[in-house]
Structures are given as C-alpha cells and as structure tokens.
C-alpha cells in the first residue's frame, strides 16, 4: 500500500475520526471512479505487541502513535489509542455491497472496520421528484441523469463498541478541507458495517 499524499487529513481528536479521515485521504490519492475498499481496523498497540513482524512491515514504530497511509492513522505521541487500517482483498465484482457485507465475520483481533465507496446522491429537495414506479436499476439510471446529482465518496468506520464515524467528500469540492464528518452522515452503511460484528 502506498502512503497517503503529503498534506494529510485534518487533525482530529477521536481515534476513529482520525482513521476515517486518513482513509478518505488515502482513497483520494487514487482518484475517482474506483471500486469500494474494505479495511479492518486494529488497535495499533495491540498489533505491535501481538504481530511485531507485521507491525515492522507496516512501519509502525513503537515510539509513534501511527504511521502514514493505511499502515496506521495519524496520531500524536500523546494519543492513547490509534487504529491501523489493514486493507482487505478486493470486493467481489457484481455482488451487491449489502450481500457481501452479510458474509463477513471478523476475528477477535479486529476492533473495527471501515469502507470507502463512491455513490451518486441528490440534494434532499430533489427527493420529491423521484418517480414512484422505478426499480433499483431504474432509480440508479434516473439519479445518474439528474442535473443536480453529486458524486460523493463516503468513508464509514465502525468499532465493536458501536462507535461510528463517516467522512463524505464531494467530487465537486475535492479537497481535504471540504470533507464533511459526523457519526450519522451515512447511517445505513454504518448499520451494515456494524452488523459484521454481530
């Protein structure tokens, strides 16, 4: 895996927010029109203690809170917790995302997970315009042709304890300082990711 671009994501106090922002920045380094990416989130200190060889390969120095890119979310030396994102295999082509997430079971060492995915979205005011008789494919085509559609990249992270965070980046405002964050921005995807720990 490559390191995140220079400049990095904005600083955040919460470890999960830091991980989500770093993954947003990591995905941004590959540009747009990319498939979804799934990551396991592992406590960095636990990873160093239990898998020192892997931690060394990921450049997780014992004296630092994290590394660069998905080797570990940015954290200052005073941070008590940090999460190292470990990218999983590519998601199977053609399988709906919700079906795929229903097949996942994480080992105990994984404290959380995160997903980056691109979607087309409409502003809330346009929802009243949606025709009632569309199936899923028809709705996707209708949204794709709507003049007010927005391309977005959503990065959603959840922890075993129920904590969740999301970062949303609009293609029209593609800059780290324009990324929206919040635990309730993408509730459906957050619920689906949380269910992988049930």
Structure summarized in a few sentences:
This protein is of the alpha+beta class and 198 residues long.
Protein model, in words:
This protein is an alpha+beta fold. It has one domain. The protein is 25% helix and 21% strand. The protein contains six helices and six strands. Mean pLDDT is 82; it is low at 1-9, 63-69 and 71-79.
Major sheet: arrangement of strands? 2-1-3-4-5-6
Average pLDDT: 82
The number of helices is 6
How helix-rich are the residues, as a percent range? Answer: 10-25%
User: What profile does the largest beta sheet have?
Assistant: 6 strands, antiparallel
Radius of gyration using CA atoms only: 17 Å
Number of domains: 1
**Overall SS class:** alpha+beta
Strand content: 15-25%
Order of helices and strands: HEHHEHEHEEEH
Uncertain stretches: 1-9, 63-69, 71-79
**CA-based shape:** globular
Span between termini: 29 Å
Number of strands: 6
Keywords, separated by commas or semicolons:
198 residues; alpha+beta; disordered N terminus; single chain; 6 strands; 6 helices; six-stranded antiparallel sheet
List the helices and strands and how they pair.
Elements: H1 15-28, E1 37-43, H2 44-50, H3 52-57, E2 83-87, H4 97-101, E3 112-121, H5 136-144, E4 150-159, E5 164-170, E6 180-182, H6 187-194
Antiparallel strand pairs: 1-2, 1-3, 3-4, 4-5, 5-6
């Amino acid at each position: 895996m490559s390191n995140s671009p220079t400049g990095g994501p904005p600083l955040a106090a919460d470890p999960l927010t830091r991980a989500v922002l770093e993954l947003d920045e990591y995905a941004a380094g590959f540009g747009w029109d990319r498939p979804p990416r799934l990551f396991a989130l592992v406590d960095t200190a636990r990873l160093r203690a239990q898998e020192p060889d892997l931690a060394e390969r990921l450049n997780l120095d014992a004296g630092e809170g994290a590394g660069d890119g998905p080797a570990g979310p940015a954290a200052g030396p005073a941070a008590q917790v940090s999460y190292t994102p470990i990218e999983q295999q590519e998601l199977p082509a053609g399988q709906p995302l919700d079906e795929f997430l229903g097949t996942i079971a994480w080992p105990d060492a994984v404290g959380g997970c995160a997903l980056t995915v691109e979607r087309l979205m409409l502003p809330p005011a346009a929802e009243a315009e949606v025709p009632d008789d569309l199936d899923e494919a028809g709705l996707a085509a209708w949204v794709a042709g709507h003049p007010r559609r927005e391309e977005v990249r959503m990065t959603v992270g959840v922890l075993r304890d129920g904590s969740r965070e999301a970062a949303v980046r609009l293609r029209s405002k593609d800059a780290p300082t324009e990324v929206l964050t919040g635990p309730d921005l993408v509730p459906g995807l957050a619920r689906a990711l949380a269910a992988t720990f049930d």
